[in-house]
Structures are given as structure tokens and as C-alpha cells.
Design brief:
Blueprint: H1 46-50, H2 130-138, H3 157-165, H4 171-178, E1 187-193, H5 202-222, H6 229-248, E2 257-263, E3 268-274, E4 281-285, H7 294-297, E5 304-308, E6 313-319, E7 322-328, H8 341-372, E8 378-381, H9 387-393, H10 396-401, E9 402-406, H11 414-445, E10 450-452, H12 454-462, E11 466-472, E12 478-481, E13 488-489, E14 503-506, H13 507-517, E15 521-525, E16 536-539
Parallel strand pairs: 5-8, 8-9, 11-15
Antiparallel strand pairs: 1-2, 1-4, 2-3, 5-6, 6-7, 10-16, 11-16, 12-13, 12-14
Helix pairs in contact: 4-13, 5-6, 8-9, 12-13
């Protein structure tokens, strides 16, 4: 039974993807041999039938011309005819009738010029599955595209930057690590210095890593008689996994340090690239070793820097001594003119409105990143004349996070911006230290909520009463902990809670671990910054 030819239908063009307009792209000449979909070699007997076209007037793919009524009919084998070229730049299309139809009486395979862009969708067939059935009947390979869709492979630069920033070490990171406890007592904590001055090559870093793993194996074997067989197997798997990870997955990617935590028996595997160097260390025990991460969490690392101008609007995060862009809200604004008259006044008001809208948009982005980072330090780099309007566009939380305002050239480089923000960040940290020390001295003077010295501070940390641990840089102390309840003390002896004999441990790690696990923070001080005390704290109660 013969099929009725499909009629040409006009449909409305929808908005093109990617904000494209007709004529955005230049025409592309047809490739040698035609710009059609690629198909595999035809089988014997298939080619002859495909070259036969109906003996009637034709129009490419049944698309009616916009400038006239071609009244074209659809060929039965519609896929053998290429798609019509789209119009470029509002060029009118005349009726292809009259004398032009005379030379078209003879059957010929149509090849049309390449399209400058996607044409409108057209309902071309009575049965859209007919070509599919034909291909399945002839066992032919389906058509494939001539080129990759460029619009489908764009990468959002801002999102990439967000992913690079996501793994930074914060106080929340430390609290999560400090809250872990291994059931087997064999969690592995490893720190590796990747600073180029200490590890200029991968081979040197690998040699030091293997030395740390050998140290861990030796420490584990020294107490091997008391270890269960399952613990021995788990530690062996952790060491093997670290070696395999280093050989197959490790990438420095600008990291200056590395923190790695593993416990196969507890399902723990965590790698933290660090933006600052850390001393080489390895620790094996029921708790994770977190004290080296304090230097990263209590630093300018992670501070936000907003660079704002009449056109510029960027937010950076300080990472490893560099500014990493997290959002770019820059917008080109119209220029000023001095023609005078009412036209100039209206034009200037229009420009000022655009600038105000731009500042509000930038303020919204700043607020969003401040809230996402839970109140980081924020430095704003902006011209003095824009400060009132920009400050008014910030939320109360964002204004509270601002630790300093400064200015820089409109086209300042990264190095110039870093130099501009170092001063406000250093001043903010110094002011914070001074305020904390004054409060600590006041509380200590009236025997209030403050501690000084190892014994009272470790006791308060074990009780969860330390809100802020004050730790001078370079201090070292041997302390003791209960192997049953984990309570820390400055002296050896037995635990008053369960009577177990205390074991020697690192005093700094005990103070930091107990403070962070209870929700407190650690503030590093200059050496001898506590009026002669080695350690101190501000207490909750």
C-alpha cells in the first residue's frame, strides 16, 4: 500500500540554546563529498534503490520557504536528502518557482549548503518511526554526528574553582577528625612535608614517605604480642593501600603538605592536601593525631577577598599564599560623556543605576560565600567613593565578617592584591590577639573563667570546659592519658575515674584534641605570650 506524502508544516522557532541568535556563526562550506551524517559501507543491492527519487518536483526535506509557497512534497526516503540551510541575518527568501523549477524536472540527489546554525524543528513525516524500521530491516548502522556539540562541553570555570577550594582544612574538619575513635586502636595518622625546599622532587618525597611507613611498622611490631590478629591484618592493609595510592593516585597539585588518615578496620580513608608545610610525622593509636592541623586552621588561610569596582566584582579565597577566584561578577558599564544638556543628565543617571545594580549583585555574592564559609575573615578591596554604597548592599553577617577595607589599582595583579590585603589581615589578627589576652588576664586576675599552666588546662580540656586554648608557638610537653576513658593529666599515676594506670602521651596533642573535640578552638600565640605560662585557656565555666 503506497504511503501518502508528508506535508510541510510551519512551526514556531523557539529560543536557541546558549543565548545564540541567528547569524552568530559564519556559514560553513560543505565538506568534500558532502556534509551529511557518516554511515558505514552499504551492503550489496542497497545502493541502487536509495538513489531513486520520486518523479515530482522537490524541495529539501519538505521545509516550505518563508518567502513564498513552494508547496513542496516530502520524498519517501527522506533521510537521503540533507537538511535545508538556515537563513543568515534576515535575508529574504524568494519563491523558488517559475523558471527555476524547469531544470529540476530530472531526478537528482540534492546536496545543500552547510547550515550556519540549527534550523527550526519541523514535523517532517507521517510516521516518525518509518526510517527506523527501514534501517532495522536493512541492518544498517545509524547516522552519527559530523562534529562535537561545542555548547554541550563547556566547563564552568567558577564551579571548577569551587571544587578546588572545597577540601580546605577548617575547625569543622578538625572536630570531625578529633571525634573519631578506632575500635581496634590502630588508626594511622601520617603527615608529609611537600614544601619544595624539603621535597624538591617526587623521588625525595617518596623516600621520606617510605621511611615514615617503616617507622609505623616498627612501632606496631614493638607491641605486636598485645595486638589481635585482625588488627595486624588491618594495619598491613592500610600500609599497602598508602603505598598503592602514592604510586597510582598521588598528585602534588601545588600542595605544600599532606595529611593522611587510614583505618581499614573502621572504614576510614581520608587524604587532606595542605596549603602549608607540616613536619613529617606518623602516629598509630585509637585516636587521630590532629595537632599539626592547627597551624592551617588558625591562619589567614581561607580568608575571603572581595575586589569591587564600578565594573569589577570578584571574590577570592586565600589558599596557600595565593588568591583563588571563587566568583566573577564583573560587568562592563557604559562610558561617561560630557555633551551637556538633558541627554547627558539622563545618561549619567542611567549609568549610576547600572553601577548600583552591579554593586548589589556583588554584595549578594559576597553574602552567599560568607554564609557558606560560616563567617570567615573578609577583606574588601574597593575605591573609597564606592564604600558606603557597597557596605549598604552587604548583609549584617557579611558586614560583621569584614576585618578591613583597602584599595588597589583598578587593574591590580594578583601580587598587588595580595600585598594590599596582607596589611588588613595582619592588623586584624594582632587586634584579635590583644583582645583575647586582655580578657584572659582579666579573668585570671579575678580567678574567673581562665586557666594557666598544664595541670589545670588539661583537666579543663578533659572536662570539655575549654572554649579557647591559648598555645604559644614552639611549646612542647610530655603528659599522660588514661587508656580507658582518655582523660588527660599532667602527671603520671592512676585515673581517678576508673583506676587505670595513665600512659605517656604528647601534651600538646592531648590539649588540642580534647579542646577541639568539645567544640573549642585553638589560638596560637607568639613565644612567651602568656606572661610566663606555657599554656592557658579561656573557659566556658
Amino acid at each position: 500500500m503506497p504511503l501518502a506524502p508528508a506535508r510541510a508544516d510551519e512551526v514556531a522557532d523557539l529560543v536557541a540554546s546558549g543565548d545564540e541568535e541567528l547569524g552568530d556563526q559564519p556559514p560553513v562550506a560543505a565538506r568534500p563529498g558532502g556534509l551529511g551524517a557518516e554511515e558505514r559501507r552499504r551492503r550489496l543491492g542497497e545502493g541502487g534503490g536509495e538513489r531513486l527519487l520520486p518523479r515530482r518536483r522537490r524541495h529539501p526535506r519538505g521545509v516550505r520557504a518563508e518567502g513564498g509557497d513552494a508547496d513542496a512534497a516530502e520524498p519517501l526516503l527522506a533521510r537521503l536528502v540533507d537538511a535545508a540551510a538556515a537563513e543568515l541575518g534576515l535575508v529574504p527568501v524568494a519563491d523558488p518557482g517559475g523558471g527555476e523549477r524547469l531544470p529540476e524536472r530530472e531526478p537528482a540527489e540534492l546536496r545543500v549548503a552547510a547550515r550556519s546554525r540549527e534550523a527550526a524543528d519541523v514535523d517532517e513525516r507521517l510516521d516518525s518511526r518509518l526510517p527506523q524500521h527501514r534501517d532495522e530491516l536493512l541492518e544498517r548502522a545509524g547516522a552519527v554526528a559530523d562534529r562535537v556539540d561545542e555548547h554541550g562541553h563547556r566547563i564552568d570555570r567558577t564551579e571548577v574553582q569551587r571544587q578546588r577550594v572545597a577540601g580546605s582544612v577548617t575547625w569543622d574538619t578538625l572536630r570531625e577528625l578529633a571525634g573519631f575513635r578506632s575500635e581496634t586502636g590502630c588508626a594511622l595518622s601520617l603527615y608529609l612535608d611537600l614544601d619544595p625546599s624539603a621535597s624538591p622532587t617526587r623521588a625525595e618525597a617518596q623516600a621520606r614517605l617510605r621511611a615514615l611507613l617503616a617507622q609505623a611498622e616498627k612501632a606496631f611490631a614493638s607491641n605486636g604480642a598485645a595486638r589481635a590478629h585482625g588488627a595486624k591484618v588491618a594495619v598491613g592493609r592500610d600500609l599497602a593501600r598508602i603505598r598503592d595510592w602514592w604510586d597510582g593516585e598521588f598528585a602534588r597539585d601545588g600542595a605544600l603538605g599532606l595529611a593522611l588518615f587510614a583505618s581499614d578496620a573502621d572504614g576510614l580513608w581520608r587524604v587532606e592536601p595542605l596549603p602549608a608545610a607540616v613536619p613529617d610525622a606518623v602516629h598509630l593509636g585509637a585516636e587521630l593525631f590532629v595537632a599539626p592541623l592547627v597551624a592551617v586552621a588558625d591562619s589567614d588561610e581561607g580568608a575571603l577577598v572581595a575586589v569591587v569596582g564600578r565594573e569589577r566584582g570578584q571574590v577570592f579565597r586565600l589558599r596557600g599564599g595565593r588568591l583563588v577566584e571563587v566568583v566573577d561578577q564583573s560587568e562592563e558599564q557604559p562610558g561617561r560623556h560630557d555633551q551637556g544638556g538633558w541627554a547627558q543628565a539622563r545618561y549619567q543617571r542611567h549609568i549610576e543605576k547600572l553601577v548600583a545594580d552591579h554593586l548589589r549583585a556583588v554584595g549578594g555574592e559576597i553574602d552567599r560565600h560568607v554564609r557558606a564559609a560560616r563567617g570567615p575573615r573578609l577583606v574588601v578591596v574597593a575605591p573609597e567613593e564606592l564604600r558606603p554604597e557597597l557596605e549598604a548592599s552587604l548583609s549584617p553577617a557579611a558586614r560583621e565578617a569584614v576585618v578591613g577595607w583597602t584599595s588597589a589599582d583598578a587593574h591590580a595583579t594578583e601580587a598587588e592584591l595580595l600585598a594590599a590585603v596582607r596589611g588588613p589581615l595582619a592588623a586584624a589578627r594582632a587586634a584579635r590577639l590583644q583582645a583575647v589576652l586582655e580578657r584572659w588576664r582579666e579573668e585570671r586576675g579575678r580567678a574567673g573563667r581562665a586557666s594557666a599552666g598544664w595541670a589545670p588546662t588539661l583537666t579543663a580540656a578533659s572536662d570539655g570546659r575549654v572554649a579557647m586554648l591559648l598555645l604559644p608557638e614552639g611549646v612542647r610537653r610530655r603528659a599522660f592519658r588514661c587508656p580507658v576513658c582518655g582523660r588527660a593529666d599532667a602527671a603520671a599515676g592512676t585515673c581517678p575515674l576508673d583506676g587505670a594506670a595513665r600512659e605517656p602521651a604528647d601534651g600538646v596533642e592531648l590539649a588540642v584534641h580534647r579542646t577541639v573535640a568539645a567544640g573549642g578552638v585553638v589560638l596560637r600565640l607568639p613565644p612567651a605570650g602568656l606572661d610566663g605560662a606555657e599554656v592557658g585557656a579561656l573557659l566556658r565555666f
